[in-house]
Amino acid sequence: MPHRRNREWIVLADKAHARIYVRDGVNGPLKLHLDEAHPAARQKQSEQGTGRPGRGFKSTQPGRYAYEDHADFSEQESAAFLGEIAGRLNDAVAHDKLDNIILVALPRSMTHIKSAMTAAAKGKIGEEWAKNLIGVAETSLADRLIALKA
Fold it and tell me: What pTM was estimated for this model as a whole?
């Protein structure tokens, strides 16, 4: 049986940014594979499609109230962006480009990614941490990952 390398993909994500690092071997150097940003996921609701929500009143009460806006455009943009990242992971698993996925994202971002992953890709998740390391410098990222494992 041929010996396989441990090809690890480390996925860092938040609602508008994603980075994927590739590492061959357990303690191999990290190589940046993907660095994407989706600025629409960071925009305010009023910048994306609507202004203030409508206002209403009841004939039995003297005051007015604002209608709640049920369309959260930044959340929809974030879900679409993270779904694209999950699609890249699905493709990598389908083409046997990785053996293990380490997923590092805040809970909501992690939920969006995992919900768009195939069962085969989910099976490759070796570790997952609910942390936001997207802003960590590349030089100290390996040390931060080791600290999370400890």
Answer: 0.78
